[in-house]
């Protein structure tokens, strides 16, 4: 990065562009003056000794000192060493950083054309200079940011400076030096530089897309506006009015996100934008010494389920099992829905104490899928599984599962050592997903 990077591409922060660059590197002005003196004085002396024009050569030396000072002195920002932001330069003419880079490289190219009168060579040389700067920023631990946008801006500045130099040469009515040789030499420099730059980026530099990542972050923030308020309200409704949210986190899963709230009473998460609760667990997960009987606990769990998950509870079966023994035992209340004997993907598991306090829940809110008719009965499924494994079957269950992205009725046949999945509509063996073992 030649200049200071914007907080957000395309937005100006209200300060001058040069001031942004100066603030990015501590002691930039002093460093520039020292480097300029070290290169300008010898350049002027050599030019005078060779009876060459001194002024323009000294100006070019000072300009190159400025490029080094602005781009290569250690800073306090940037990507990790070995990385470069290779996102498309979509903000080339709207980013203050890119405009600074254009302004940084244009004067030098213009002066170089006036001195050497070889515009193609000058343009190629400055393009290679820009590429070299970005490679050094990427590979050296300078605290600077390598960027494809900066490279494009630098090359644009060099091209504009070259054009300006050509115009001035014409106005001065001077001739170019060996135009054919200029074109050939410029092409060679450009070709060698391009190959070298491509080699570095392919073998030594990791490409990252900072702008795209920023855009995704901003887009996610816009899409999840209100999600933290919703999950906080759900946490308060579940844990109680004295619930205090400590932290809210959001994780992207394609077109929806999981929102999680960590509170002083426990953790709750759900899906956005569906506003569908997924799970919760209280930090106080010990059983209560309550007096509710099993049927009363089931009624309390049903009241909770119908309040928070009315669609899931509708048409489902409730099964209740005890957890633990003694006065602090709790109950696990399970809701499942069946259609034509096939267990649907919807699920709701509630853990509740004998005092009627819900410790936690796990929910999967899924609409009942449309399935093909079941043609394979339990006996045939067992035979198919036993033929596949060579082992006797000891359990079966019929449920809806996604197979290759499609919902299918599936027999799961257990043999003690290995479970076998059989398509209940076709009788076909369903192989285990890769990586499942």
Structure in words:
The protein is of the alpha+beta class and 437 residues long. The protein has twelve helices and 15 strands. The strands form three sheets. Strands 3, 4, 5, 6, 7, 8, 9, 10 and 11 form a nine-stranded antiparallel sheet that branches. A four-stranded antiparallel sheet has the order 12-13-14-15. It has a two-stranded parallel ribbon with strand order 1-2. Helix 1 packs across helix 4, helix 3 packs antiparallel against helix 4 and helix 4 packs across helix 5.
Describe the structure concisely for a colleague.
The protein is an alpha+beta fold and 437 residues long. It contains 12 helices and 15 strands. Helix 1 (17-24) crosses helix 4.
- What portion of residues belong to β-strands? 15-25%
Number of helices: 12
- The helix-strand sequence is HHHEHHHHEHHEEEEHHEEEEEHEEEE
Give start-end ranges of low-pLDDT stretches. 1-18
Secondary-structure class: alpha+beta
Task: State the major sheet.
Answer: 9 strands, antiparallel
Shape call: elongated
Return Rg in Å.
Answer: 35 Å
List the helices and strands and how they pair.
Blueprint: H1 17-24, H2 28-49, H3 54-72, E1 83-85, H4 96-116, H5 119-139, H6 148-171, H7 179-203, E2 206-208, H8 210-223, H9 227-239, E3 245-253, E4 256-263, E5 266-272, E6 276-282, H10 294-308, H11 310-313, E7 316-323, E8 330-339, E9 342-343, E10 347-353, E11 358-364, H12 378-389, E12 395-403, E13 406-414, E14 419-423, E15 429-430
Parallel strand pairs: 1-2
Antiparallel strand pairs: 3-4, 4-5, 5-6, 6-11, 7-8, 8-9, 8-10, 10-11, 12-13, 13-14, 14-15
């Amino acid at each position: 990065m030649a200049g200071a990077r914007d907080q957000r591409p395309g937005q100006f922060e209200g300060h001058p562009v040069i001031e942004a660059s100066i603030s990015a590197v501590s002691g930039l002005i002093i460093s520039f003056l020292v480097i300029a003196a070290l290169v300008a004085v010898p350049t002027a002396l050599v030019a005078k000794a060779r009876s060459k024009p001194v002024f323009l050569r000294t100006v070019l030396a000072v300009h190159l000192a400025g490029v080094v000072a602005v781009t290569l002195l250690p800073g306090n920002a940037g990507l990790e060493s070995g990385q470069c932001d290779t996102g498309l330069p979509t903000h080339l003419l709207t980013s203050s950083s890119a405009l600074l880079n254009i302004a940084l490289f244009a004067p030098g190219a213009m002066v170089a054309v006036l001195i050497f009168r070889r515009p193609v060579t000058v343009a190629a040389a400055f393009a290679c200079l820009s590429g070299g700067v970005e490679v050094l920023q990427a590979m050296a631990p300078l605290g600077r940011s390598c960027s494809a946008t900066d490279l494009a801006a630098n090359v644009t500045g060099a091209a504009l400076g070259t054009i300006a130099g050509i115009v001035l040469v014409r106005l001065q009515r001077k001739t170019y030096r060996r135009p054919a040789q200029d074109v050939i030499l410029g092409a060679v420099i450009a070709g060698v530089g391009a190959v070298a730059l491509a080699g570095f980026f392919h073998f030594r530099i990791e490409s990252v897309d900072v702008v795209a990542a920023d855009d995704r972050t901003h887009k996610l923030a816009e899409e999840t506006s209100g999600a933290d308020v919703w999950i906080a309200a759900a946490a308060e409704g579940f844990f109680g009015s004295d619930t205090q949210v400590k932290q809210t986190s959001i994780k992207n899963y394609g077109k929806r996100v999981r929102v999680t709230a960590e509170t002083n009473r426990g953790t709750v998460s759900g899906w956005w934008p569906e506003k569908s609760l997924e799970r919760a667990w209280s930090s106080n997960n010990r059983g209560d010494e309550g007096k509710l009987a099993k049927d009363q606990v089931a009624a309390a769990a049903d009241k909770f389920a119908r309040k928070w998950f009315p669609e899931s509870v509708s048409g489902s079966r409730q099964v209740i099992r005890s957890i633990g023994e003694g006065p602090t035992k709790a109950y696990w209340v399970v809701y499942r829905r069946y259609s034509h004997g096939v267990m649907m993907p919807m699920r709701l598991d509630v853990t509740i104490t004998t005092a009627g306090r819900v410790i936690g829940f796990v929910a999967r809110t899924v609409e009942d899928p449309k399935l093909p008719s079941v043609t394979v009965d339990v006996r045939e499924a067992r035979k198919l599984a036993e033929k596949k494994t060579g082992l006797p079957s000891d359990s079966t269950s019929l449920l809806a599962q996604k197979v290759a992205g499609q919902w299918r009725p599936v027999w799961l046949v257990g043999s003690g050592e290995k479970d076998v999945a059989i398509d209940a509509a076709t009788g076909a063996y369903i192989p285990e997903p890769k990586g499942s073992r």
